[in-house]
User: Which sequence fits this backbone?
């Protein structure tokens, strides 16, 4: 954890050309002057100022031409390069004294030693799974002394997301305020079309596209054995498009276009510069408030929508008492001893509050650690698959015993307590 | 060139999915004027350049100061002392080579003195960090020229926007939660015939379970009407009873246990909305009754000509209803039944649009315009969106500022809550007065803050008196506005940058609905409000 005595902002670079007259005029007033709405503990100072110089950016993606309508740090010539690298280069050359360090990696490729160094973490992730992982990582860094949370171990998480003209920004103080998992119901699971509709009863152009993608592609392997459909490959999309048109013609369905095909295959979410600018700005404002300690930060969730005029709604998301991530208490799960392990698996993946992707379940049976089911390694999956049709009793599990569950949605294993119902 | 077109389609793909190729075309034909390349200004322009507006022109008489570079991403420290309009144009131009960037090194006041018609060429003018006097002068020129004007200001932690447009029509408002147009309460002839073609009682299980819920509801409604004197279910109890009728229609197996018929479940779930009476939305009725709709001349915009044609349709062939929209939601059904039902609605929509077209032709003829002036495509789009038409009208700045027409009611009722965002509007007005009086803004230097609080308070009282506003502004807000020292923090400027840019895009594309007419953002509490002033 960053030392409490360390300055919040660190001078980076060689100091050359970093300072000029008036550079901080627009910002220093907020640090030098208290007022009726500033934080009660805020102590203004007129010390030498510097901006946010020490920034790390983590991004596993490379730049695509479709990013250029809104991702203003990238240009046509950068297509194909890692986003983290190009962003760092751009900022470092545009903002004197700023030192952005890029990491062309998945957030999951970095560990607690990495994340522990930061004062604040800001996320603009594109999936709920990733958000939950980051959420879990920061929760795992919390230190409790005799059951009391050490505030020095809290790293604030500022999270922003957008879809078309809608967006939200939220402030999470891990261990103190509502976390991502506390409000999982705000992210309803993606609804997919039923298979029988796709296979035998298409009505919409989307059904025809899913038919080509999910049924024809694996059957016909148009680009060779084992070649997975790549949404970024125009040839692949063209193939899906043609087959979708044929399917649609069979059923007199209109509306299949190349653009729709791409949208369905890649699950494209429309995006514009403006909404992203608004949410990014709101998040940055919160970073400034927290870093300067001059203001009470957003408490704690803001929603934005500018389809019709401009609409914002700000509210305090509440912590869930039995939150799967931050409540620290092993969650009870209730099953009859004659329930099959499959039912437990279904509960973990289907419950609205857990929404796990491919949980691995282990337990201590007769003093030994036993993997009950694990999906992500083929050999282990095969070996443990028969367990799914065995009852909990047959598997040697006892009432009140702990099950450990690992999943991509959380960096730490989750503990559940198995409670037998009669 | 085909290559550029294809690469533009790729680049703009994510936004084309929101406003379509036709929306993009309006952007690419637009010429935006930005006055003052401050952080707020450049952030707004950034969000217009990236999506590919045709051209922008920055009007700014200032030279770059160290302070400017400190909060502006589109200025660099080696442009200190240079022409601000030029420096910003270069770095904004660099964002998107499809866009043509220009600048005029001149203050807007000078242009208004020497060449006010300069502003007539623009699709929209965005004025940033302008004093009241300039806004009023510019507002008046643009109002007469019918050029939309968007006023934006970042002041400390407060963002402010004011849209000034006489009349802005929106055909494609893209409402978030639109009610379907199913006509179950007044089925048109072709729909009735289609319903007749079904006999639920004689269907086999497969067909029965894959009959669209619209047909199911229509059938049971027919039965209900015949048993209830032609009166549809009206209150909760009747609707419950109606749902029960449908539920009883679910097939049962040999043991009398109801089968799994998802289409029937859908029917039951949709009873409430399905029974909504078809009627012209009041907003559209209001448009029908407006002057522009009834006094059509050769100068009338096509929106009003088409609206009048739709009105004629409603009064005649439509029997009191708008042209059929022609779309139905997806529902459990086999392909053929669904497509056939969908086609019934589609064909009726085409028919109705053709009828409206005839009315359009008549109107155009009556003042000597060729029928091709308004295309079939446009008429079809208009009819499809007939329920969602919107017209936004904003008062002029002169009206807002005049003692005779100030919106006292809105101000005083908002200020019943002394912490409402309205207080920031009043403070911004007071701060402008301070500027007029003292040729500077309050609290710019630390040593000024304390004294300026009292001076600003005088301006506040002066403002309230002039407009006879019986409201109380807490001293806290006066102190806070001195504390701000007219700072323009980047993150607040950027929030406005995104907000204003999208409003400008709405004005240019005539898609989605712009705000009306004043927007206030409070970065301290992350709240906002829209006011009508």
Assistant:
């Amino acid at each position: 954890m960053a030392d409490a005595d360390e300055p919040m902002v660190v001078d980076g670079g060689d100091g050359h050309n970093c300072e000029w007259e008036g550079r901080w005029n627009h910002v220093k007033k907020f640090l030098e002057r208290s007022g009726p709405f500033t934080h009660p503990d805020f102590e203004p100072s007129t010390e030498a100022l510097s901006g946010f110089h020490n920034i790390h950016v983590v991004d596993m993606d490379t730049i695509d031409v479709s990013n250029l309508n809104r991702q203003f740090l990238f240009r046509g010539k950068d297509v194909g390069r890692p986003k983290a690298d190009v962003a760092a280069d751009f900022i470092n050359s545009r903002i004197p004294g700023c030192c952005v360090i890029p990491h062309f990696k998945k957030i999951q490729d970095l560990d607690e030693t990495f994340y522990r160094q930061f004062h604040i973490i800001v996320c603009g992730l594109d999936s709920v799974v990733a958000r939950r992982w980051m959420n879990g990582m920061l929760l795992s860094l919390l230190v409790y002394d005799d059951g009391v949370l050490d505030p020095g171990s809290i790293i604030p998480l500022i999270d922003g997301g957008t879809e078309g003209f809608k967006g939200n920004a939220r402030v999470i103080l891990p261990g103190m305020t509502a976390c991502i998992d506390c409000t999982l119901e705000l992210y309803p699971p993606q609804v997919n079309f039923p298979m029988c509709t796709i296979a035998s009863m298409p009505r919409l152009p989307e059904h025809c596209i899913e038919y080509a993608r999910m049924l024809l592609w694996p059957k016909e392997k148009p680009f060779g054995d084992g070649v997975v459909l790549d949404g970024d490959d125009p040839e692949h999309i063209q193939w899906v498009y043609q087959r979708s048109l044929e399917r649609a013609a069979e059923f007199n369905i209109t509306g299949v276009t190349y653009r729709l095909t791409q949208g369905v295959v890649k699950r494209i979410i429309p995006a514009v510069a403006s909404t992203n600018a608004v949410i990014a700005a709101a998040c940055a404002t919160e970073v400034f408030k927290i870093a300067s300690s001059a203001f009470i930060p957003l408490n704690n969730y803001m929603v934005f929508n500018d389809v019709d005029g401009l609409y914002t709604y700000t509210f305090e998301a509440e912590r869930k008492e039995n939150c799967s991530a931050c409540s620290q208490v092993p969650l009870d799960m209730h099953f009859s001893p004659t329930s099959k392990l499959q039912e437990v698996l279904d509960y973990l993946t289907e419950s609205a509050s857990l929404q796990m992707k491919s949980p691995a379940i282990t337990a201590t049976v007769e003093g030994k650690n036993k993997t009950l089911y694990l999906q992500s390694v083929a050999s282990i999956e095969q070996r443990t698959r028969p367990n799914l049709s065995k009852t909990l009793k047959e598997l040697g599990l006892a009432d009140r015993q702990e099950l450990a569950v690992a999943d991509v949605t959380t960096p730490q294993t989750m503990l559940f307590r198995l409670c037998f119902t009669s | 060139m085909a290559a550029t077109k294809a690469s533009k389609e790729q680049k703009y793909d994510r936004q084309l999915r929101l406003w379509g190729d036709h929306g993009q075309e309006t952007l690419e034909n637009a010429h935006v004027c930005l006055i003052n390349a401050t952080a707020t200004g450049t952030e707004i322009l950034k969000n217009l350049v990236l999506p590919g507006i045709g051209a922008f022109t920055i009007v700014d008489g200032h030279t770059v100061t160290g302070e400017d570079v400190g909060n502006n991403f589109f200025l660099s420290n080696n442009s200190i002392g240079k022409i601000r309009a030029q420096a910003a144009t270069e770095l904004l131009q660099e964002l998107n080579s499809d866009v043509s960037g220009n600048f005029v090194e001149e203050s807007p006041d000078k242009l208004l003195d020497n060449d006010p018609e300069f502003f007539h060429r623009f699709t929209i003018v965005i004025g940033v960090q302008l004093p009241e006097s300039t806004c009023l002068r510019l507002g008046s020129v643009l109002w007469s020229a019918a050029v939309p004007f968007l006023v934006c200001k970042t002041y400390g932690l407060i963002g402010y926007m004011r849209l000034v447009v006489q009349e802005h029509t929106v055909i494609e408002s893209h409402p978030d939660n639109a009610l379907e147009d199913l006509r179950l309460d007044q089925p048109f002839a072709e729909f009735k015939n289609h319903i007749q073609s079904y006999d639920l009682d004689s269907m086999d299980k497969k067909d029965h379970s894959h009959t669209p819920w619209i047909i199911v509801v229509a059938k049971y409604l027919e039965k209900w009407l015949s048993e209830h004197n032609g009166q549809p279910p009206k209150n909760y109890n009747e609707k419950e009873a109606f749902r029960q009728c449908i539920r009883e229609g679910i097939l049962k197996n040999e043991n009398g246990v109801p089968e799994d018929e998802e289409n029937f479940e859908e029917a039951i779930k949709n009873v409430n909305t399905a029974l909504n009476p078809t009627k012209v939305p009041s907003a559209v009725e209001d448009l029908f009754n407006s002057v522009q709709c009834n006094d059509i001349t050769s100068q009338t915009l096509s929106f009003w000509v088409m609206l009048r044609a739709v009105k004629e349709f409603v009064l005649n062939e439509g029997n009191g209803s708008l042209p059929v929209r022609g779309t139905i939601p997806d529902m459990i059904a086999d392909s053929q039944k669904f497509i056939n039902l969908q086609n019934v609605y589609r064909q009726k929509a085409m028919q109705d649009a053709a009828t409206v077209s005839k009315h359009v032709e008549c109107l155009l003829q009556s003042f000597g315009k060729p029928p091709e002036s308004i295309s079939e495509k446009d008429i079809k789009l208009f009819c499809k969106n007939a329920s969602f038409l919107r017209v936004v009208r904003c008062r002029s700045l002169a009206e807002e500022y005049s003692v005779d027409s100030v919106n006292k009611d809105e101000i005083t009722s908002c200020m019943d809550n002394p912490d409402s965002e309205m207080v920031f509007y009043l403070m911004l007005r007071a701060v402008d007065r301070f500027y007029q009086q003292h040729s500077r803004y309050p609290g710019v230097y630390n040593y000024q803050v304390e004294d300026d609080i009292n001076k600003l308070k005088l301006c506040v009282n002066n403002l309230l008196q002039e407009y006879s506003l019986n409201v109380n502004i807490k001293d806290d807000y006066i102190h806070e506005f001195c504390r701000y020292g007219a700072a323009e923090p980047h993150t607040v400027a950027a929030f406005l940058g995104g907000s204003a840019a999208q409003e400008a895009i709405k004005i240019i594309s005539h898609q989605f609905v712009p705000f009306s007419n004043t927007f206030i953002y409070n970065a301290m509490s992350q709240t906002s409000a829209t006011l009508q002033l």
Summary: The mean pLDDT of chain B is 96. The CA atoms of residues 432 and 507 of chain B lie 27 Å apart. The longest strand of chain B covers residues 149-155. The longest helix of chain B spans residues 335-366.
